Amino acid sequence: MAFHEVQFPNDIAYGATGGPEFATSVVATASGYEQRNINWSSARGRWDVASGLKKQTQLDTLIAFFRARKGRAHGFRFKDWTDYKATGQAIGTGDGTNKTFQLSRTYSSGGSTDVRTITKPVAGTVKIYLAGVLQASGWSVNTTTGVITFTTAPGNNVAVSADYEFDVPVRFDTDHMAVTIEQVNLHQWSGIPIVEIRV
What is the per-residue pLDDT across 96-144, written as a single tens digit (0 to 9) for each? Predict the structure, then answer.
């Protein structure tokens, strides 16, 4: 289905619970040894945004947003307040020919790294550097794909890096609104799951 380039309400997203998840199969032998198989090469985010609902106006906004996305049918942008900006991220090295570079975010810990492709940068937040020098012009960003395009290809061995904020492409992981009316103007939605989608 279609992806809607609209952001989930930030004030509701701020109270979300969740983060990245992996799919790992664990097989244990009778002796207690394990075999662990990594089923996904990259993490996939999952959140529950029900805890972000605090006011009637937020519920009204969410009902309209849910209906417009038709439940699980259409994707949308979501700000993960625990991980939404990057600074000094290396996105490639110039070769004098290539003019396009994909935004990415690298996570490093204990000698291991995980590289995440960023496809939904926030308009107006992207800054591009060549060899550490901020470039005020000579490039553009596609905020629906995360691709940076230079007017002139960066020179050979020139480091290309970026600062930016980004959204996560997600969808609702339910087609059903489970709203409980506790009293006038006081409602409770027991769970509002959303899940990251690959785009």
Answer: 999 999 999 999 999 999 999 999 999 999 999 999 999 999 999 999 9
Tens of pLDDT, residues 55-81: 778 888 988 999 999 999 999 999 999
DSSP-derived letter for residue 121 is B
User: 102 has which bridge partners?
Assistant: 147
CA distances from 21 to 38, 42, 45, 165, 171 (A): 12, 9, 6, 21, 16
Q: Give residue 146's region: left, alpha or beta (phi > 0; psi -120 to 50).
A: left
Tokens for 121?
């940068």
- d(CA 184, CA 14) in angstroms, rounded, equals 25
User: Angle CA(166)–CA(198)–CA(162) in degrees, nearest 5?
Assistant: 30
Give per-residue pLDDT as tens, 125-137. 999 999 999 999 9
Radius of gyration of the chain (CA): 20
Distance set, CA 120 to CA 157, 179, 195 (Å): 27, 30, 15
Rounded mean pLDDT of the chain? 91
Q: What pairs with residue 59 in β-bridges?
A: none
